[in-house]
Amino acid sequence: MTTVEIGQALKRSEDFRLLTGKGKYVDDISLDGEARAVILRSPHAHARIVEIDRAAAAALDGVHLIVTGQDWLAEGFGPIPTRSAVNKNKDGSPLSEPPRHCLAIDRVRYVGEAVALIVADSEKIARDALELIDVTYEELPAVTDPRKALADGAPRIWDDIPNNLCVDFELGDEAATKAAFEAADHVISLDVENNRVTGVPIEPRGLVGTYDAETDTYLLYNSTQNVHAIRKTIAEDIFKISADKIHHIAPDVGGGFGAKNSVYPEPALVLYAAKQLQRPVKWIAERSESFLADTHGRNQSSKVQLALDSDGTFRALRTDTVGDIGAYCWTIGPFTPTGGSARTQGGPYAFETMYYSSRAVFTNTMPMDPYRGAGRPEGTYQIERIVEAAASQLGLDPVALRRKNLIPAEKLPMKSPMGLDIDSGNFPEVFERTLALSDRDGYSERVAASKAAGRARGFAIAPYLECTGGGPKEFAGIQFAADGTITLSVGSQGTGTGHETAMPQILSAKLGLPVEKIRYRQGDTDATPLGGGHGGSRCLEVGGGAVVRATEAVIDKAKAIAAHLLNSQADDISFADGQFSDAKTNQSTPMEEVVRASFETGRLPQDMEPGCLDSDAIFERGIISCPNGCHAAEVEVDPETGAVAVANYWIVDDFGTIINPLLADGQVMGGVAQGIGQALYEDAVYDEDTGQLLAGSLMDYALPRADLIPNMVIRYYEDAPTAKNPLGVKGAGEAGCCPAPPVIVNAILNALKPYGVTDLSMPVTSEKVWQAIHDAKP
Amino acid sequence: MPTISLTVNGQPVTEEVDAPTLLVKFLREQLKLTGTHVGCDTSQCGACVVHVNGEAVKSCTMLAVQADGAEILTIESLANNGTLHPMQQAFHDKHALQCGFCTPGMVMASIALVRDNPDPSEDDVRQGLEGNLCRCTGYQNIVQAVRAGAKNMRD
Fold first, then answer.
1. Is ipTM beyond 0.90?
2. If exposure means fewest CB atoms within 10 Å of the residue's CB, which of A3, A22, A48, A695 is most exposed?
3. Do B51 and B17 reside in the same domain of the chain?
4. Domains with residue ranges and CATH for chain A
5. Closest Cβ opposite residue A22 in set B35, B125, B141
């Protein structure tokens, strides 16, 4: 028997399956009689659909179904509503939410928008049919830049929405901030751009749907992050049926990063086709289709202002953001540039007051939804860039300026001026540990070595504070079987993040039961009565919390059984290290024995039934947690070519209690790699004139490769667990991509200071660096 | 339809294939070897790497008919009665996979890399795996795993 502990670097139980080719991703599921669906997508950024001629396609042998937006409307299906938590303008009026149907009705508003569904006997036939559909479009003027979209006279994406403004938003004290700015010795201003990127999970989205006429129910296999919420929308809002009519399963999911958290049009289309044709229907996205039709993230343009005193003390922060949300509100698109970016403004620094304002704006582009971090990376980039700019402009040491303004440990718990409940942490200690880790003493030698090789070396450090998100409530259920196996079912969901290991690890540690006997179920609407899926770094926080609560319920019942077995009173029984003990009688019995007894009527107390140990629990967090930490990096820039290499990367993260350091490291490394990707390589760029996505394949969108990502040195600060959840965890999934972009960009600016370069925009490509060096030359 | 005869994971296979069928589609859809994955449509991601006559090949870059007479090894061939190949074992030990979608291609590419270079440096591994994209791990643990796997394969 192997019981494991919290904090142990337990290797993953899912690995064997995934390493031997036995993983089961959606495209690995093939059902008898399966038909293939493809989607005809808009080639235009903005156009009226004049006519769709499907005759030639429909006549093709093996084509069974062609569905247009008008067909869809005629079925009476509803639009997909947004779930943005920010849904009101500053004046209290509701946000502008245009109807989003699964297929474009009479107008297309971005390149890649779904225009028609084609289902045929094979993918090849379906694609041939797609080519034969003749759509007559009348092109309309398009706008892809959100700042231009806001201007008077800009093309209107929605006729009834002036200035393409979805919602305006504010948080903080505008008057107090204004007063603090007027009283401050210095005001630093900087325009900060967060470039548009996209998740690019290596497994493209995919679906297999079936319909059972006898029971009038659907089964949907979906490469998704959130089976329950998406099922609810498909059933109740689109089809207007009850949610239990759809059994929704996420099998092995090949990465998500937010891009699989949305309610997309394809699942409802596939289920509809399965019902119409009375046969299974499969749809698998091509990669180019993923670039066009997976949600994008970031794309915020912000004017950031920092007010500070002559001694460097921060007084106030003011940020005004224009946030692109694409052509529709999508699932929670308007939230990211509003509430999502507002909450962690100012990072771990002390401010008297802050004011954040923003506008979420429609453009003729693929809609935006959360991408790893969803607002917090943007906020971290804003504060860290302005702090670096302040140090540079005022001739202050950037390390000393940061040290001076970090919230002191003794000020916690506190509420930030943005209302964020910061309960735990030690930002100065984490900062100093990061500095110590980054070998500042050896820096000048490394600078000299770089210089000797013709390269400029730069350093930056970025403390950060972010927060968790996603659904606040989670379910966990523990079922025991007479053969000793235990089934743990949790409504949160891993997408490669190791939950199949971490959640059983928690159960094993809490109950003293062998981890290899635990089967794990997730991503299945039949496995749990509710579930919040994957997102907002929530899974250990609320999913793990629910597992702890369920184990507590098991222990309560098991104590009664143990008392019965030991001829003791339940009140005298204590439980530790997998043993139930009565200190008075000095007798004990292990949990495994109690589990065995729980299936034998003769060994149970009279009021308990066999199987009685099965326990469910729901944990609901009251307040979101605040992961924080500090990252530092050194870069080398080749001034001849502009090429940037990340030479060193150091990390001290405070995620509260670390459940499994192996898995935590994986989350940090992956998050940092995505942050470096945004900083140096990735750009989901549209052509302004045509509205075409220029970065529409992996040949155009630069995903970081193995030779572009540095080794990272990772440490954890575990002395400040949070009391907001039973495990004391703060969430690890998104933290890495918060500080990585600013620490890289600031390190480059630090390296290029002798060249007179003071600003660069992401992605900092070698071309931009070369140009900046040459532009700055006197 | 042309008929091809080849060896796949040690088993002789004779099949009719539609001429335009890519090797990866043939393996996945006709032979039901779904361990080899498709992650892109431009031969960038490397999730579909298999061994063709001992060489690592992106199986989306060749037609099934071009594999006529070839010896093909896929990820399914590596483990032996539940014992992982030393490279698979190293990926497990070093937490070199998360979602697992790039993993079969990554492992097949790594084995070919080590066969050509039994004791690769970190740079060798990073350069050698340029043709394989991973979005989850940040590569660091993959690089460690390949070097550890190389050692396991030497021992």
1. yes
2. A48
3. yes
4. 15-21+471-620 (3.30.365.10), 31-140+201-256+260-293 (3.90.1170.50), 143-198+295-394 (3.30.365.10), 426-469+624-778 (3.30.365.10)
5. B35
